[in-house]
Amino acid sequence: MINYIYLTRDQKRMVEQSVDLNALQIKMFKAGYNPDIDSELFHAMKKAYEYPELIRVKLGADDE
Asked: Which of 4, 5, 2, 3 is nearest to 41 (CA)?
């Protein structure tokens, strides 16, 4: 069974544009994410960076 990682388009773009995990963390800090509060998201985005084939984009109100 494959467990996908669901990210928003902006989060997916951050992952795709990062050259390494440090760059990803910097982008997340600049976007206002806090690892103490958003620890699950940080973990998901790190995993998405390591395994980009697992990324799926969340469908929400902004995708209409």
From this structure: 5
- Name the token pair of 5: 């990682």
State pLDDT tens for residues 3-59.
899 999 999 999 999 999 999 999 999 999 988 888 899 999 999 999 999 999 987
Q: Give the list of residues 6+ apart from residue 50 with CB closer than 8 angstroms, or none.
A: none
Q: Is the pTM of this model over 0.90?
A: no
Convert 27-58 to b/e letters by CB count within 10 Å (16 or more is b).
bbeeeebeeeeeeebbebbbebbeeeeebeee
